[in-house]
Input
Amino acid sequence: MIPYGRQTISEADIQAVVDVLHSDYLTQGPAVPAFEIAVASYCGAQHAVAVNSATSALHIACLALDVGPGDIVWTSPITFVASANCALYCGAQVDFVDIDAKTYNLSVERLAQKLEIADKTGKLPKVVIPVHLAGLSCDMEAIHALGKQYGFRIIEDASHAIGGRYKDEPIGGCKYSDVTVFSFHPVKIITTGEGGIAVTNNPELADRMQLLRSHGITRDANKMTHVSDGPWYYQQIGLGFNYRMTDIQAALGLSQLRQLDEFVARRNKLARSYDLFFAGMPVLVPWQHPDIYSAFHLYVIRLQLGKLNKNHREIFELLRASDIGVNLHYIPVYRQPYYEKLGYDRNDYPEAEKYYTEAISIPMFSGLTDQMQLEVKEKIELNLR
Ligand SMILES: *Cc1c(COP(=O)(O)O)cnc(C)c1O
Output
């Protein structure tokens, strides 16, 4: 089976992990801060807080922005459930903004319309979480302008997008957002096994997230409520979690980061090759914006079902049966039973619904060889007939 995505691990990556295993610190050692500095510097952000997953990063980013009961968070319905769950963890409500027909990202027009209505009904969101689906940046300038107009904060869920660029600057620079979150799950662009990071230019948010990732405990005398009892002393000044990344993971991340540009270039090369292959076929290829360099975490095709003799599910099943590990990113979040109970109306999201009936993610990862890609193309051609 050729999977839709998988990690690429080099001998240098393996050695970096082995080196940590031989060292004094498996966790809370020097690799985590070194990784944080490297990611922040890559993105052009001031601060980075490494954690054990992007899910944790989204949670502490929401908490740092004071999301709590009575608040509303908006995100895209076409995303992994974690983009929405983070708001529920904080006791807030979630609502969805339908996607754009072309980019499959949260639609800025729908967002503007929904904000206008929410403003009148007093139900404005506290935070909006745009998701850079497949690695293609959202229109952050426009979303940021709406944030200024309506007073909401922004967390970019860039789990798919490290190594990508928006208007010639790296994703994660946080020019148009409060916090940007990346995931290092093995199917993502670079990996730490499990892991995530939150980057920000706001020192106060960085401090809050650092506390939240480790029990709410500080060893910084300046943050304590009174003078230290002695050299052993620390204080818990908030309620946090154990969301720490280990040094084993951070060392792998540092080594992976050195290959990031190469990985993303390879993904873009594979995408161009797929684009050419699909030209003239009853398939829509991922639309690209001239100002955006996608990290191409995913390559999503949309079946033009009116021009095909088979349905979406048949084609999906035939591809799986022929050892092509296709997938569907994503089931609209409001269709999940847990969310259905919270009362969303599918009719509010016509573009997400349409997307769900046509989309298929085909193999896309830096280790996909030309030979493997050829096999994928041949099997798709055969099974679309
Ligand atoms: C993978 C992913 C997450 C969660 O990442 P983890 O590191 O697995 O917690 C969140 N949002 C999106 C869009 C993702 O794809």
Remarks:
- The chain has a mean pLDDT of 98.
